[in-house]
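If you are new to this repository, start here. Below is one unmodified record pulled from the training split, so you can see the exact layout before writing a loader.
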Amino acid sequence: MKARRRVSGWSRLLAAALLVAGAPAVFGANIGVAFYDQRFGLLNDATGAYSQVSNLPIAGGAAGLAALNGLYYLEDLGDNLFTADPLTGTASKVGSAGMNLDVAAFAGTATALFEMDRSSNLYSIDAATGAAKKIGATGIAPANRNHDTSLSSDGTWLYYTVGLEDEADELYRINVLTGIAADLGNTGVRSVAGSAFVNGQLELFQYGEDRNYIYTAADGSTRFTRGAQLSSSAQIIDGGALLLPTADNTNVTGLVPEPNTFVLAGLGLVAACLVSALREHRSKALVPVVARRGG
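And here is the target side for that same chain:
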């Protein structure tokens, strides 16, 4: 057994500062997920466990999932847009894109819905009618049926993964106003069927391997780390989204602080404690020592 050392107040404060500065993102969210078939439910990203909510009346599987205005939105491979109730999973058809698009992936920002076709063109999707409107070409090479694709959003940008079967996917960030994509680099993760943004982290959902995992990286990063193994019932997730506890997501950017905000707030609190301790230390050093007289 090691001898215990006395820890000073300064050491405690320093340790607190380091803890706040290096605090990892908190996981354990229940993410809404849609599959290659008609399944819809909740995925615990800390454990990889899946809870079934409903089967959806969709054709050919889901192209992805989005959360908007207190509902989940999804588009099937027949260009049809649906809403799904987050509690019951009851689905309602909104409408069709009306353009006979070969859909590659679907997702939404904090205020709008989008899809990518396999020619790598970006479209906006009207949440009220399902109608598609072309924004523009992304500049990404076309993705045929041999490519794995996924689309998700951090609330502002779209993030698109694409890769051939059994090859690591490339990650792109897409401007929703112009459709132009920037290549962020290779994820190092192969067989990505779907993705989602959770607590400032991009999560990739693997499929088709002997063991499939959730991989995570910070917003805009390609340094993915392996997380929980997906359960046997959580295979081939085509898209995911985290539904915020509000009926209106239009002001989500202002309502939900960035993760770094909490870090800065914590560091500010620690700094205040350090200043207070320094002042106390100095005041004690300035108090004169008066010798006691013998009586």
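Two things worth knowing about this chain: The chain has three helices and 20 strands. Residues 30-255 form a domain with the Neuraminidase fold (CATH 2.120.10.30).
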